[in-house]
Amino acid sequence: MSRTKSVLLYLMAAFYVFAGFNHLMNPGFYLAIMPPDLPNPEWLNVLSGLAEIVLGVYVLEPRVRVLAAWGLIALLVAVFPANLWVAMENVGAEGPGSGAGAANWVRIPFQGLFIAWAWWYTREDGSTT
Question: Is 1 exposed, middle or buried (0-12, 13-18, 19+ CB in 10 A)?
Fold first, then answer.
């Protein structure tokens, strides 16, 4: 693995572990931005936080890296509708209407970038497909 790919792997892992712990330490923010139709928002917040922590750690282990990267992709796809809801309803920490307005839409293309970043680690080194 190239030095750049390795450094970016550790950066990505740290990002997910930090984000996962943030779900557990600051649940109020995440609960406020969850779509109201989801069942058991507290449980879903804990589950997504734990998934980010576990997958963030496992992506560093070469034996399970590909599986963990696919898990991160699945997680990103699963939370995409919530991110879209945040943008469409201008949701912030105080609920709908309290968000950052147009800035909420900035997160949407980043989902694609994060998916591509994780996908990079599903490929064998030197593979371009």
Answer: middle
